[in-house]
Amino acid sequence: MSNSGWVISRRTRKRYAACFSLVLATAVTTSLQAGERRALPTEPLEEYDNPPAPSPLWGIGVSPGMITQEGPFVSHQVNVNGNGMNITGDAANEPSIAVDPTDHNKMVIGWRQFNSVTSNFRQAGYGYTNNGGATWTFPGVLENNVFRSDPVLETDDIGRFLYLSLLETFFDNMWRSSNGGQTFTNLGPATGGDKQWFTVDHTNSTGHGFQYQCWSTSGNNYQGRQFSRSTDGGVTWLNPVNIPNSPAWGTPDVDSNGNLFIGGVNLNTGQFWCVRSTNAKNGAVTPSFDQITGVNFGGDIDFSDTINPAGLAGQVFLKADRSGTSTNNNIYMMATIQPTGFTTGTDVMFVRSTNGGLTFSAPKRVNDDPVNHSKWHWFSTMAVAPNGRIDAIWLDTRNAANNTDSQLFYSYSTDAGNTWSPNVAASIAFNPFLGYPNQNKMGDYMTIISDNTGGDVAYTATFNLEEDIYYVRVAPGTPTPTPTPTPSPIPTPTPTPTPMLSISGTVSYCSNPVAGPVPNVTLTLTGSSSSSTLSDGSGNYTLSAFSGGNYTVTPSKAGLPPSTNGIDTVDVIAIQRHFLNLGTPLSGCRLTAADVNGIGGIDTVDVIAVQRFFLAFSSGIANVGRYQFAPVSRDYSGIVSNQTAQNYDTLIFGDVATGFVHRSEGTSDRASTTEPSN
Question: Is residue 597 predicted with pLDDT exceeding 90?
Answer without folding.
Answer: no
